[in-house]
Amino acid sequence: MLTILFDGIAYGMLLLILACGLTITLGLMNFINLAHGAFAMAGGYITVVLMNSYGVSFYWCLPIAFLAVALAGLVLERLLYRHLYSKPHLDQVLFSVGLVFMSIAGAHYFMGGQQQMIQLPQELSGRWDLYGLGIGRYRLFIILVCILLTITLQLLLTKTRFGSQLRAAVDDGRVARGLGINVSAVFAMTFAVGSGLAGLGGAMGTEILGLDPNFPLKFMIYFLIVVTVGGTSSITGPFLAALLLGVADVAGKYYVPEIGAFVIYGVMVAVLLLRPHGLFSREGGR
Protein backbone atom coordinates (compact mmCIF):
# COMPACT_ATOMS: atom_id res chain seq x y z
CA MET A 1 0.00 0.00 0.00
CA LEU A 2 2.82 2.41 0.85
CA THR A 3 4.56 1.65 -2.44
CA ILE A 4 1.34 2.35 -4.35
CA LEU A 5 0.94 5.59 -2.40
CA PHE A 6 4.49 6.64 -3.24
CA ASP A 7 4.08 5.79 -6.93
CA GLY A 8 0.76 7.66 -6.97
CA ILE A 9 2.38 10.76 -5.49
CA ALA A 10 5.18 10.57 -8.07
CA TYR A 11 2.67 10.18 -10.90
CA GLY A 12 0.67 13.12 -9.56
CA MET A 13 3.80 15.26 -9.39
CA LEU A 14 4.59 14.41 -12.98
CA LEU A 15 1.06 15.43 -13.97
CA LEU A 16 1.60 18.70 -12.13
CA ILE A 17 4.84 19.46 -13.97
CA LEU A 18 3.06 18.77 -17.24
CA ALA A 19 -0.04 20.78 -16.32
CA CYS A 20 1.31 23.73 -14.34
CA GLY A 21 2.11 25.60 -17.55
CA LEU A 22 -1.54 25.24 -18.53
CA THR A 23 -2.46 26.49 -15.06
CA ILE A 24 -0.57 29.68 -15.84
CA THR A 25 -1.94 30.27 -19.34
CA LEU A 26 -5.50 29.19 -18.58
CA GLY A 27 -5.80 30.31 -14.99
CA LEU A 28 -3.89 33.56 -15.06
CA MET A 29 -4.09 34.61 -18.71
CA ASN A 30 -7.63 33.26 -19.29
CA PHE A 31 -6.48 31.64 -22.53
CA ILE A 32 -7.60 28.10 -23.41
CA ASN A 33 -4.52 26.52 -24.95
CA LEU A 34 -5.41 22.91 -25.76
CA ALA A 35 -2.13 22.66 -27.66
CA HIS A 36 -0.31 22.58 -24.32
CA GLY A 37 0.42 18.87 -24.83
CA ALA A 38 2.16 19.66 -28.12
CA PHE A 39 4.73 21.75 -26.23
CA ALA A 40 5.20 18.87 -23.78
CA MET A 41 5.70 16.48 -26.69
CA ALA A 42 8.30 18.84 -28.16
CA GLY A 43 10.27 18.74 -24.90
CA GLY A 44 10.15 14.95 -24.96
CA TYR A 45 11.41 14.69 -28.53
CA ILE A 46 14.17 17.21 -27.86
CA THR A 47 15.34 15.01 -24.99
CA VAL A 48 15.14 11.84 -27.09
CA VAL A 49 17.17 13.35 -29.93
CA LEU A 50 19.80 14.90 -27.67
CA MET A 51 20.31 11.73 -25.62
CA ASN A 52 20.05 9.06 -28.32
CA SER A 53 21.70 10.88 -31.21
CA TYR A 54 24.21 13.18 -29.55
CA GLY A 55 24.87 11.54 -26.19
CA VAL A 56 23.89 14.59 -24.13
CA SER A 57 23.45 13.94 -20.40
CA PHE A 58 19.87 13.60 -19.18
CA TYR A 59 20.50 16.34 -16.62
CA TRP A 60 21.50 18.79 -19.36
CA CYS A 61 18.53 17.79 -21.50
CA LEU A 62 16.05 19.08 -18.91
CA PRO A 63 17.10 22.77 -18.96
CA ILE A 64 17.68 22.59 -22.73
CA ALA A 65 14.15 21.26 -23.26
CA PHE A 66 12.74 24.01 -21.03
CA LEU A 67 14.60 26.80 -22.81
CA ALA A 68 14.04 25.49 -26.34
CA VAL A 69 10.29 25.01 -25.85
CA ALA A 70 10.00 28.34 -24.04
CA LEU A 71 11.63 30.03 -27.02
CA ALA A 72 9.27 28.23 -29.41
CA GLY A 73 6.33 29.29 -27.24
CA LEU A 74 7.54 32.90 -27.29
CA VAL A 75 7.79 32.90 -31.08
CA LEU A 76 4.33 31.36 -31.51
CA GLU A 77 2.87 33.79 -28.99
CA ARG A 78 4.24 36.78 -30.88
CA LEU A 79 3.18 35.43 -34.28
CA LEU A 80 -0.12 33.70 -33.55
CA TYR A 81 -1.44 33.45 -30.01
CA ARG A 82 -1.52 37.14 -29.11
CA HIS A 83 -4.09 37.81 -31.82
CA LEU A 84 -6.54 35.50 -30.03
CA TYR A 85 -6.39 36.86 -26.48
CA SER A 86 -9.51 38.97 -26.97
CA LYS A 87 -11.34 36.37 -29.08
CA PRO A 88 -14.12 34.09 -27.76
CA HIS A 89 -13.02 30.88 -26.06
CA LEU A 90 -14.43 28.82 -28.92
CA ASP A 91 -11.98 30.49 -31.32
CA GLN A 92 -9.12 29.73 -28.93
CA VAL A 93 -10.18 26.09 -28.64
CA LEU A 94 -10.49 25.57 -32.40
CA PHE A 95 -7.16 27.28 -33.07
CA SER A 96 -5.24 25.29 -30.44
CA VAL A 97 -6.85 21.99 -31.47
CA GLY A 98 -5.71 22.71 -35.02
CA LEU A 99 -2.17 23.16 -33.71
CA VAL A 100 -2.43 19.81 -31.92
CA PHE A 101 -3.18 17.94 -35.14
CA MET A 102 -0.47 19.85 -36.99
CA SER A 103 2.07 18.88 -34.30
CA ILE A 104 0.97 15.23 -34.50
CA ALA A 105 1.44 15.22 -38.26
CA GLY A 106 4.83 16.90 -37.93
CA ALA A 107 6.00 14.40 -35.29
CA HIS A 108 4.89 11.51 -37.51
CA TYR A 109 6.77 12.93 -40.47
CA PHE A 110 10.06 13.75 -38.73
CA MET A 111 10.22 11.13 -35.94
CA GLY A 112 7.99 8.30 -37.13
CA GLY A 113 5.07 6.73 -35.32
CA GLN A 114 7.03 4.38 -33.05
CA GLN A 115 7.35 4.70 -29.29
CA GLN A 116 10.48 6.59 -28.24
CA MET A 117 12.63 5.46 -25.32
CA ILE A 118 15.50 6.94 -23.34
CA GLN A 119 18.04 5.43 -20.96
CA LEU A 120 18.08 7.13 -17.57
CA PRO A 121 21.36 7.69 -15.74
CA GLN A 122 22.35 4.78 -13.53
CA GLU A 123 21.83 6.74 -10.32
CA LEU A 124 18.17 7.35 -11.27
CA SER A 125 17.44 3.75 -12.25
CA GLY A 126 16.13 1.03 -9.96
CA ARG A 127 14.51 1.22 -6.54
CA TRP A 128 15.42 1.41 -2.88
CA ASP A 129 13.71 -0.98 -0.46
CA LEU A 130 13.08 0.76 2.84
CA TYR A 131 11.22 -1.39 5.39
CA GLY A 132 9.08 -2.90 2.67
CA LEU A 133 8.51 0.38 0.87
CA GLY A 134 9.72 0.35 -2.71
CA ILE A 135 11.08 3.81 -3.54
CA GLY A 136 11.78 4.34 -7.22
CA ARG A 137 14.82 6.56 -7.58
CA TYR A 138 13.52 8.38 -10.63
CA ARG A 139 10.10 8.87 -9.05
CA LEU A 140 11.76 10.37 -5.98
CA PHE A 141 13.70 12.68 -8.30
CA ILE A 142 10.42 13.78 -9.92
CA ILE A 143 8.84 14.49 -6.53
CA LEU A 144 11.79 16.62 -5.39
CA VAL A 145 11.90 18.58 -8.65
CA CYS A 146 8.15 19.18 -8.51
CA ILE A 147 8.23 20.43 -4.92
CA LEU A 148 11.05 22.85 -5.76
CA LEU A 149 9.24 23.98 -8.90
CA THR A 150 5.95 24.54 -7.05
CA ILE A 151 7.58 26.66 -4.37
CA THR A 152 9.47 28.70 -6.97
CA LEU A 153 6.37 29.39 -9.06
CA GLN A 154 4.24 30.26 -6.05
CA LEU A 155 6.84 32.77 -4.86
CA LEU A 156 7.23 34.17 -8.38
CA LEU A 157 3.49 34.76 -8.77
CA THR A 158 2.77 36.10 -5.28
CA LYS A 159 5.95 37.76 -4.04
CA THR A 160 7.52 39.43 -7.07
CA ARG A 161 6.84 42.54 -9.11
CA PHE A 162 6.31 40.43 -12.22
CA GLY A 163 3.59 38.42 -10.50
CA SER A 164 1.80 41.61 -9.46
CA GLN A 165 2.04 42.98 -13.00
CA LEU A 166 0.63 39.74 -14.41
CA ARG A 167 -2.36 39.72 -12.07
CA ALA A 168 -3.02 43.37 -12.82
CA ALA A 169 -2.78 42.78 -16.58
CA VAL A 170 -5.27 39.92 -16.36
CA ASP A 171 -7.77 41.66 -14.10
CA ASP A 172 -7.88 44.91 -16.07
CA GLY A 173 -5.51 45.31 -18.98
CA ARG A 174 -6.56 48.91 -19.72
CA VAL A 175 -5.81 50.12 -16.20
CA ALA A 176 -2.55 48.15 -16.18
CA ARG A 177 -1.46 49.89 -19.38
CA GLY A 178 -2.38 53.22 -17.85
CA LEU A 179 -0.07 52.45 -14.94
CA GLY A 180 2.81 51.87 -17.35
CA ILE A 181 2.77 48.06 -17.41
CA ASN A 182 3.76 46.55 -20.73
CA VAL A 183 0.88 44.06 -20.86
CA SER A 184 1.99 42.56 -24.17
CA ALA A 185 5.47 41.80 -22.84
CA VAL A 186 4.10 40.38 -19.59
CA PHE A 187 1.79 38.03 -21.49
CA ALA A 188 4.56 36.99 -23.87
CA MET A 189 6.92 36.15 -21.00
CA THR A 190 4.17 34.29 -19.13
CA PHE A 191 3.26 32.23 -22.17
CA ALA A 192 6.93 31.40 -22.77
CA VAL A 193 7.37 30.21 -19.18
CA GLY A 194 4.19 28.13 -19.38
CA SER A 195 5.37 26.53 -22.62
CA GLY A 196 8.82 25.88 -21.17
CA LEU A 197 7.30 24.14 -18.17
CA ALA A 198 5.34 21.91 -20.53
CA GLY A 199 8.58 21.07 -22.34
CA LEU A 200 10.25 20.25 -19.03
CA GLY A 201 7.35 18.00 -18.09
CA GLY A 202 7.53 16.24 -21.44
CA ALA A 203 11.25 15.67 -21.02
CA MET A 204 10.78 14.20 -17.54
CA GLY A 205 7.72 12.17 -18.50
CA THR A 206 9.24 10.38 -21.50
CA GLU A 207 10.56 7.46 -19.45
CA ILE A 208 7.33 6.92 -17.46
CA LEU A 209 4.55 7.94 -19.85
CA GLY A 210 6.20 6.99 -23.12
CA LEU A 211 6.41 9.24 -26.14
CA ASP A 212 4.78 8.98 -29.55
CA PRO A 213 3.10 11.46 -31.92
CA ASN A 214 -0.30 10.99 -30.23
CA PHE A 215 1.03 12.24 -26.88
CA PRO A 216 -0.86 15.60 -27.02
CA LEU A 217 -4.21 13.86 -27.49
CA LYS A 218 -3.63 11.05 -24.99
CA PHE A 219 -2.82 13.36 -22.11
CA MET A 220 -4.84 16.47 -22.98
CA ILE A 221 -7.71 15.40 -20.73
CA TYR A 222 -5.33 14.76 -17.81
CA PHE A 223 -3.93 18.30 -18.03
CA LEU A 224 -7.44 19.74 -18.07
CA ILE A 225 -8.56 17.60 -15.12
CA VAL A 226 -5.65 18.79 -12.96
CA VAL A 227 -6.40 22.45 -13.72
CA THR A 228 -10.19 22.02 -13.39
CA VAL A 229 -10.08 20.17 -10.07
CA GLY A 230 -7.34 22.36 -8.62
CA GLY A 231 -8.84 25.69 -9.64
CA THR A 232 -6.98 28.63 -11.08
CA SER A 233 -6.20 30.86 -8.11
CA SER A 234 -2.59 29.73 -7.68
CA ILE A 235 -0.26 26.78 -8.03
CA THR A 236 -1.44 25.34 -4.69
CA GLY A 237 -4.77 24.11 -6.05
CA PRO A 238 -3.32 22.14 -9.00
CA PHE A 239 -0.61 20.81 -6.67
CA LEU A 240 -3.19 19.27 -4.32
CA ALA A 241 -5.34 18.16 -7.26
CA ALA A 242 -2.39 16.41 -8.91
CA LEU A 243 -1.61 14.57 -5.66
CA LEU A 244 -5.22 13.47 -5.25
CA LEU A 245 -5.66 12.40 -8.87
CA GLY A 246 -2.28 10.67 -9.11
CA VAL A 247 -2.88 8.53 -6.04
CA ALA A 248 -6.46 7.77 -7.08
CA ASP A 249 -5.39 6.77 -10.60
CA VAL A 250 -2.54 4.47 -9.52
CA ALA A 251 -4.53 2.89 -6.66
CA GLY A 252 -7.59 2.41 -8.85
CA LYS A 253 -5.63 0.66 -11.59
CA TYR A 254 -3.98 -1.60 -9.00
CA TYR A 255 -6.93 -2.54 -6.79
CA VAL A 256 -9.77 -2.47 -9.34
CA PRO A 257 -8.09 -2.87 -12.76
CA GLU A 258 -11.45 -3.49 -14.45
CA ILE A 259 -12.55 0.10 -13.81
CA GLY A 260 -9.24 1.63 -12.74
CA ALA A 261 -8.97 3.88 -15.78
CA PHE A 262 -12.24 5.58 -14.80
CA VAL A 263 -11.38 6.29 -11.15
CA ILE A 264 -9.69 9.59 -11.98
CA TYR A 265 -12.86 10.79 -13.73
CA GLY A 266 -14.98 9.74 -10.76
CA VAL A 267 -12.76 11.75 -8.44
CA MET A 268 -13.06 14.75 -10.76
CA VAL A 269 -16.87 14.56 -10.79
CA ALA A 270 -17.04 14.17 -7.00
CA VAL A 271 -14.77 17.17 -6.38
CA LEU A 272 -16.61 19.39 -8.85
CA LEU A 273 -19.98 18.49 -7.33
CA LEU A 274 -18.69 19.78 -4.00
CA ARG A 275 -16.50 22.58 -5.39
CA PRO A 276 -17.81 23.61 -8.85
CA HIS A 277 -14.96 26.07 -9.36
CA GLY A 278 -12.24 23.69 -8.18
CA LEU A 279 -10.44 23.35 -4.88
CA PHE A 280 -9.20 26.94 -5.16
CA SER A 281 -11.01 29.47 -7.34
CA ARG A 282 -9.90 32.97 -8.26
CA GLU A 283 -12.30 35.88 -8.11
CA GLY A 284 -12.38 38.44 -10.86
CA GLY A 285 -10.26 38.21 -13.98
CA ARG A 286 -11.04 38.99 -17.55
Name some characteristics of this structure.
286 residues, mainly alpha, two-stranded antiparallel sheet, 11 helices, 73% helix, 3% strand
Task: Please give a structural write-up.
- Helix content is 73%, strand content 3%.
- It has 286 residues and is mainly α.
- The termini are far apart.
- A hairpin with a 2-residue loop joins strand 1 and strand 2 (133-136).
- A two-stranded antiparallel ribbon has the order 1-2.
- The longest helix has 27 residues, at 2-28.
- The chain contains eleven helices and two strands, in the order ααααββααααααα.
- Its main location: membrane.
- It is found in: Cell membrane.
Total strands: 2
Number of helices: 11
User: Would you tell me the structural class of the helices and strands?
Assistant: mainly alpha
Strand content: under 5%
Task: Give, in order, the helices and strands.
Answer: HHHHEEHHHHHHH
Give the overall form: globular
Q: pLDDT average, as an integer? A: 86
Helix-residue proportion: over 70%
Indicate the low-confidence ranges by residue numbers.
Answer: none
Major sheet strand order: 1-2
Distance between the termini: 44 Å
Instruction: Give a short account of the largest sheet.
Output: 2 strands, antiparallel
* Cα gyration radius (Å): 19 Å
Helix/strand layout:
Blueprint: H1 2-28, H2 36-54, H3 58-79, H4 89-111, E1 127-130, E2 133-136, H5 137-159, H6 161-171, H7 173-178, H8 183-209, H9 215-230, H10 236-255, H11 260-274
Antiparallel strand pairs: 1-2
Helix pairs in contact: 1-5, 1-8, 1-9, 1-10, 2-3, 2-4, 2-8, 2-9, 3-8, 5-6, 6-8, 9-10, 10-11
